């Protein structure tokens, strides 16, 4: 039984880490591309950059409610083990 709980916790942890990478990567990739190609400094690239930055930042912020849900499920699992 303990082995099954551990496998489930590891699977859930890997799933959450994958989700966080998916939500973080686009925003940080845009920041990296901006550092290399200076998108903000060109007049033709500023407006598209600002829109992409805003959308990808909202995507980045989506990870934080998911982390709280993940912690809530871990807490409920620990309460179930204590019973």
UniProtKB/TrEMBL annotation:
The keyword Transit peptide does not apply. GO terms for cellular component: membrane. The keyword Transmembrane applies. Keywords: Membrane, Transmembrane, Transmembrane helix. The chain crosses the membrane at residues 12-30, 50-75. InterPro entries: Neuropeptide-GPCR (IPR052665). PANTHER family: CARDIOACCELERATORY PEPTIDE RECEPTOR-RELATED, G-PROTEIN COUPLED RECEPTORS FAMILY 1 PROFILE DOMAIN-CONTAINING PROTEIN. This is G-protein coupled receptors family 1 profile domain-containing protein. It comes from Strongylus vulgaris.
């Amino acid at each position: 039984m303990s082995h099954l709980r551990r496998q489930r916790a590891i699977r859930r942890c890997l799933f959450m880490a994958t989700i966080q990478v998916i939500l973080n990567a686009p925003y940080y990739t845009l920041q990296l591309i901006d550092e290399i190609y200076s998108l903000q400094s060109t007049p033709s690239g500023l407006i598209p950059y600002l829109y992409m930055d805003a959308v990808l930042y909202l995507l980045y912020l989506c990870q934080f409610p998911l982390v709280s849900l993940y912690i809530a499920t871990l807490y409920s699992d620990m309460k179930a083990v204590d019973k």
